[in-house]
Design a protein that fits this description.
By secondary structure, the protein is of the alpha/beta class. The chain has a domain of 63 residues. A 7-stranded parallel β-sheet has the order 4-1-5-6-7-10-11, with helices on both faces. A two-stranded antiparallel sheet has the order 2-3.
């Protein structure tokens, strides 16, 4: 997520952090009965993982002032336009604040918020009915990946690598549901329902599998409610649901931002926020930002942050019913009161209330559908610290974006690296056999309070945005979607309930590149070292259960050996840039010093004894 967050302004973070990561998958076949034994699968992707375009009235991509197509997902204005807007609207109020050290009538806060809102979100704003105003459209894939142009097929498979599914079930049994992630929930669900019917007709199957990923989890909540409201039979259309890191009860980070804004207490704002968000080699910049922020009086800086969040939500995001679905149910009523209490909000409020009902009833709906024969599986990332910009970051377990309770449909956990109490006893709320153990080795999670405890798989330390890079997760999903005998966490010891994070993309690519390398020209000792490292890498790549540290050690060892093969010398240790390292230490020293003695005071607050 660090690569998606702003590197300088924490205000932008509240928008960019919505970027997340993960993607889609699907299925299709011929227009007659198919007896292949594999139901078609429809992937419901995560936020901003669909190809979306900003079009003119003729269907051509809109160009910005620089003559370039607007870039998804926000279709921001060109840099010259943003700079000009900032100079026109915010320069004088900002200068006034810096000179007088007082933001009279919050002029600077409002100006900065207006510039940010107009630059970041104006092109994706929605009307009071919850429909996007501009001609923003997602590419629609109303057939299987087999029938799509190569470019679209490759895009879909790049989002989440389930090529193995296509090899087993056929590319004609794979479908990709594409949608605009900040659009209208009800319109989107109607399109998803239509795609289910298309997949059934094209493949000749009576049922489909669904693969809701991240934001797709909220769409699946809405889909179940859509079937209920329209007196349709979900169990007649759906065979299996394989959730992958679903935002089943929203994302705590978004609920916090809607409700409280960004963290602005001194410890966060002048301490750990920016160092936690920027890469390690940018530590100097993080601590420099801590020092620069003190140019503003503390009260005015906090007001700027709060005003920016309020404007971004009230003026641009409050009518996005798909984003409202990412607000946790426990935060919804308070957030609705804050943003949807005016009479003109009634149309959107009816829609968000409808989804809230679907959200709070989703667990009951799942249990009811299980009784009707629908099989549900869940894949959860956990024990990865949430991005440190919101109040919940140190209060819940998470995968960086979505809290564990939401992903797991109710599993019990306390926080990252926080074990359950010594006297805690497994609850067995939804366990069919009390002799089963559903607590992980670190006693971080009790899975038995999750409604799908017998069919939920956990990956410790996995970053939400790198889920698609964990090949074990992808292989597990393929197994669930193609093997009807795979029924729960006990079906195959190769896929235990509790597993580990890994980023295997580089390792798999390296193995495929080097597996046939001719070592005959190498010195005997180096050839033996290479073969041993290659054998270890092969075992790691083929494994389905390996602690993260062990997997990374194998990758690093192979990388060192291949460097020696190519260059004839040992790979030098990666040293830090001496100058940047020195700057980091200097800026950190003064930043920590200021925080220790002056808390959140700005320079003028200190000088004027305020």
């Amino acid at each position: 997520m660090k690569s998606l967050l702003s590197k300088s302004l924490s205000v932008i973070l509240c928008v960019v952090l919505l970027l997340s990561s993960v993607a889609v998958l699907s299925v299709s076949a011929a227009e007659e009965e198919c007896n292949c034994g594999h139901c078609p699968s429809i992937v419901i992707p995560g936020i901003f993982q669909s190809k979306v375009r900003y079009l003119d009235e003729n269907g051509n991509e809109m160009l910005n002032a620089s003559g370039e197509p607007y870039a998804a997902p926000f279709f921001m204005k060109s840099t010259p336009e943003i700079v000009l807007s900032a100079l026109e609207k915010a320069l004088l109020p900002l200068a006034g604040l810096l000179v007088t050290q007082t933001d009279i009538n919050a002029a600077c806060a409002n100006a900065i918020a207006e510039v940010l809102g107009d630059a970041l979100l104006s092109n994706i704003a929605l009307d009071e009915y919850g429909h996007v105003i501009k001609n923003i459209q997602a590419d629609k894939y109303t057939t299987s990946l087999a029938n799509l142009p190569a470019e679209q097929r490759e895009y879909a498979l790049d989002q989440i690598p389930l090529q193995k599914y296509a090899e087993i079930a056929g590319m004609d049994h794979l479908y990709f549901f594409s949608y605009f992630s900040t659009g209208n929930m009800i319109d989107t669900i109607e399109e998803l329902y239509e795609l289910i019917q298309i997949a059934k007709e094209e493949t000749g199957h009576d049922k489909v599998n669904l693969v809701p990923i991240s934001q797709g989890g909220s769409l699946e909540n809405a889909l179940m409610q859509y079937y209920i409201d329209n007196e349709l039979d979900f169990a007649a259309d759906v065979n299996r649901v394989c959730y992958v890191v679903p935002a089943a009860d929203g994302a705590a980070v978004l609920g916090d931002i809607f409700r409280y804004g960004l963290l602005d207490d001194p410890e966060a704002l002048y301490g750990y926020m920016f160092p936690s968000l920027l890469d390690e080699d940018q530590g100097y910049l993080a601590y420099l930002i801590n020092l620069i922020l003190r140019i503003f009086p503390n009260a005015d800086l906090n007001n700027i942050l709060d005003t920016a969040v309020n404007v971004l939500v009230e003026d641009y995001l409050e009518y996005s019913t798909l984003l409202w679905a990412l607000v946790p149910s426990g935060d919804y009523l308070a957030c609705r009161e804050m943003y949807l209490s005016d009479p003109e909000d009634v149309y959107v409020r009816e829609q968000t209330d409808w989804y809230y009902n679907a959200q709070v009833n989703s667990r009951k709906n799942i249990l009811d559908l299980k009784e009707k024969g629908v099989e549900f599986f869940d894949i959860v990332d956990y024990n990865y610290t949430m991005y440190q910009i919101c109040d919940s970051w140190d209060k819940v377990n998470s995968d960086g974006i979505i809290h564990t309770d939401s992903e797991s449909f109710g599993a019990t956990s306390i926080g990252v690296d926080v074990s359950l109490p010594d006297d805690y006893v497994q609850a067995n709320t939804y366990c069919t056999d009390p002799s089963h153990n559903h607590i992980d080795e670190g006693r971080l999670v009790d899975a038995t309070t999750g409604i799908l405890c017998e069919s939920t798989f956990y990956f410790k330390g996995q970053d939400h945005e790198k889920t698609a890079r964990n090949d074990v997760i992808m292989r597990l999903a393929v197994r669930i979607l193609t093997d009807e005998t795979f029924e729960n966490v006990y079906s195959d010891p190769a896929f235990p309930q509790f597993n580990y994070a890994r980023d295997s993309r580089g390792a798999v690519n390296d193995y495929n590149e080097w597996k046939n390398y001719d070592t005959s020209a190498l010195p005997a000792e180096l050839a033996a070292e290479f073969k041993a490292a290659l054998s270890e890498l092969e075992a790691a790549v083929n494994s389905t259960y390996m602690p993260t540290a062990e997997f990374n050690a194998v990758k690093d060892k192979f990388d060192a050996v291949t460097y020696k093969v190519v260059n004839g010398t040992d790979k030098p240790e990666e040293g830090t840039n001496f100058f940047l390292n020195l700057l980091t230490k200097i800026f950190k020293f003064f930043s920590d010093l200021m925080l220790k003695f002056f808390g959140g005071k700005g320079y003028s607050d200190i000088i004027l004894f305020r």
